[in-house]
Design goal:
- The chain is mainly α.
- The protein has helices at about 15-30, 70-90, 95-120, 120-125, 130-145, 155-175, 190-210, 215-230, 240-245, 260-280, 295-315, 315-335, 340-365, 375-400, 410-415, 415-435, 435-445, 450-470.
C-alpha cells in the first residue's frame, strides 16, 4: 500500500496493538469472574488468591493466565515507547518538548489513576442506587473532553474550550463527591494499576531516551535495578538501599518499589527497537502472504505459553523446564533461516524470548517459586518471554497470514485501552443496572461456568463499545 505520492506506507505494529488489546480485555474479564459460591477452578483466578475463600496467600507459588495480563500490558507499553518517542525525535521535537511530553503523559495517567477510582460506582457507594449509576456515567463522560485526541484542524479556541470544560467538570466532581466513609476527595484513593503504569510510562521513557543508541547501558540499568530489588528481599539486612527503596516524596503517586516492573518494561523496549526497525524496513503490504512454516512457528509460540503457565502452576518443574528448553530449540530452528524481513524480526525477537524465559526459569526456585504477588524475579522475566511469544503469534496472524480480521477486536481495544479500562465499571455496569439487564444475567449465572459466560458477555460488550469508538477515531491520550 502507498500514499498518493507513491511513498510506501510505514507499517503499523498491529500485533503490538493486539497484544495490548488481549491484555486489557483479559484484565477486564478476570474482574468479572464469580467470586462467591459459584467459584471457578483455581486456575481461573490469581494463583495467590485461590477459591473458595479468595484469601491472599503470598507463599503459594505458580501463575495462571490471570497473572499474565498485567505484565503483558507492561511489556506492550515498553515496546511502544521506541515507536512513540522515535517518531517525535525524527520530527525534530526539541529535548525540552520531548521532556514536556513525557511529563504530560505521566501527569495525565496520574490524574486518570485518581479520577477513575473516584468515579467507580462501588467506590461511590457500597450499595449503588439509580443516582449512583447516573453519577458514575457522568464521571465517565467527563473523561472524554479531557482525554480524547482532538483533530489538529479544529480551531485552537474550540480545542481549549473542550479541554477546559472537561477539567472544570472533573474538578467539580472531585470537590462535591462524598464517599461511604464520609470523606471527599483524597490523594490516597487511587487505582494502583494505573499508578504503576504512570511510573512505567515516565521512567520507561527516560530509560529509553538515555540509552536509545546503546543497548549495553540499558541492560546495565536493568542489572542495577535488579540489584536494588534483590537487596530488598524480606530477609535482607536493612541499610541505605532499603531506605532509598522505601522513600517517596509523593507516596500516592511514586515509590521506588514500583520501578521493579521496569524489569518487564525494559525487555519491552528492546523488543520495541526491533519492531521500530521492522516498521521502517517493511512498508505495509510489501511482503506476500505465506503459510506452512509460519503455522508451525505459531503453534510453537502457543505451546510455550500453555506449557509454562500450566507446568509452573501444577509445579511440574523439571518436566516443564526441559520441555520449555526443547520448544525453545524447536522454535529457534524453525526461525533460524528467515526468508523475509518479518521472519527476521520474529527470529530476533524469539532469541530474546529464549533468553528471558531461560533466565526466568533459572530464577524460579530462588524466592520459593514464581509468584505475581509479591512479584518474584522469575515472574518478571518469564512473563516478558511469554509476551514476546504472544506478539510473534499475533504477528504471524496479521503480518504473515493476513488474518487481521480474526483479531480485529483485540487491535481496536489495544489502540484505545483506557476507554475499555474505565468503561467496564463506569459505562457497561451502570447501563446494565439501569436497564435491568444485569438482573437477568445474574439470574442465569447459577453455576460456575454460567457465571463465567456472564463475565464474558459483559467484557465483550465493553470490547465492542471500545471498538466502535476506535473505528470512529475517538481515542484517548494515554
Amino acid at each position: 500500500m502507498t500514499h498518493s505520492t507513491g511513498v510506501p506506507t510505514p507499517n503499523r505494529a498491529l500485533a503490538l496493538d493486539a497484544l495490548r488489546g488481549l491484555a486489557i480485555l483479559a484484565m477486564l474479564l478476570s474482574g468479572q469472574l464469580p467470586f462467591d459460591e459459584h467459584a471457578l477452578p483455581a486456575w481461573m483466578y490469581h494463583a495467590q488468591v485461590p477459591p473458595p475463600n479468595f484469601q491472599f496467600n503470598g507463599a503459594l507459588p505458580g501463575i495462571t493466565w490471570v497473572d499474565l495480563v498485567f505484565p503483558f500490558f507492561l511489556f506492550a507499553m515498553g515496546a511502544a515507547l521506541p515507536l512513540a518517542l522515535a517518531r517525535r525525535i525524527e520530527a525534530g521535537v526539541s529535548k525540552r518538548k520531548l521532556a514536556a511530553f513525557v511529563v504530560e503523559r505521566g501527569a495525565l495517567l496520574g490524574f486518570f489513576a485518581l479520577f477513575v477510582q473516584a468515579i467507580r460506582p462501588y467506590t461511590l457507594s457500597a450499595h449503588p442506587t439509580t443516582t449512583t449509576w447516573l453519577v458514575a456515567l457522568l464521571g465517565f463522560a467527563i473523561l472524554f473532553p479531557i482525554l480524547t485526541r482532538l483533530p489538529e484542524g479544529w480551531p485552537r479556541a474550540v480545542r481549549y474550550a473542550i479541554r477546559g470544560g472537561g477539567w472544570i467538570g472533573a474538578a467539580l466532581f472531585l470537590a462535591t463527591a462524598v464517599y461511604p466513609d464520609g470523606t471527599g476527595f483524597k490523594l490516597g484513593r487511587s487505582d494502583i494499576i494505573i499508578v504503576v503504569l504512570t511510573n512505567m510510562a515516565v521512567f520507561g521513557s527516560i530509560v529509553w531516551l538515555v540509552t536509545r543508541a546503546q543497548l549495553l547501558p540499558r541492560l546495565g540499568l536493568l542489572g542495577l535495578l535488579l540489584a536494588i530489588r534483590l537487596s530488598n528481599m524480606p530477609n535482607a539486612t536493612e541499610g541505605w538501599v532499603h531506605d532509598v527503596w522505601m522513600y517517596s516524596p509523593l507516596p500516592w503517586l511514586y515509590q521506588l518499589y514500583y520501578l521493579q516492573y521496569l524489569c518487564i518494561v525494559i525487555p519491552g523496549t528492546i523488543a520495541g527497537d526491533l519492531i521500530l526497525k521492522w516498521t521502517r524496513e517493511v512498508p505495509e503490504g510489501a511482503e506476500k502472504p505465506a503459510a506452512g512454516r509460519p503455522l508451525l512457528v505459531g503453534a510453537c509460540m502457543l505451546a510455550l505459553v500453555f506449557l509454562v503457565v500450566i507446568g509452573l502452576k501444577a509445579r511440574w518443574l523439571i518436566g516443564t523446564t526441559l520441555l520449555t528448553f526443547a520448544l525453545c530449540v524447536a522454535g529457534w530452528k524453525l526461525l533460524n533461516e528467515p526468508r523475509t524481513k518479518t521472519e527476521q524480526l520474529h527470529k530476533e525477537l524469539f532469541n530474546w524470548a529464549i533468553y528471558w524465559l531461560v533466565l526466568g526459569l533459572f530464577f524460579e526456585p530462588y524466592e520459593g517459586g514464581i509468584r505475581k504477588d509479591r512479584a518474584t524475579v522469575s515472574y518478571y522475566f518469564v512473563t516478558a518471554g511469554l509476551a514476546i511469544c504472544v506478539f510473534i503469534g499475533f504477528s504471524i496472524l496479521i503480518d504473515v497470514l493476513r488474518k487481521r480480521r480474526v483479531v480485529q477486536l483485540l487491535v481496536d481495544n489495544g489502540q484505545n485501552p483506557m476507554v475499555a479500562y474505565a468503561g467496564i465499571n463506569n459505562f457497561i455496569t451502570p447501563v446494565l443496572a439501569l436497564t435491568g439487564a444485569d438482573l437477568v444475567l445474574s439470574q442465569c449465572a447459577y453455576s460456575p461456568w454460567r457465571g463465567f459466560i456472564k463475565g464474558l458477555i459483559v467484557t465483550l460488550l465493553m470490547g465492542l463499545t471500545t471498538a466502535f469508538l476506535t473505528r470512529r477515531r475517538i481515542l484517548w491520550r494515554t
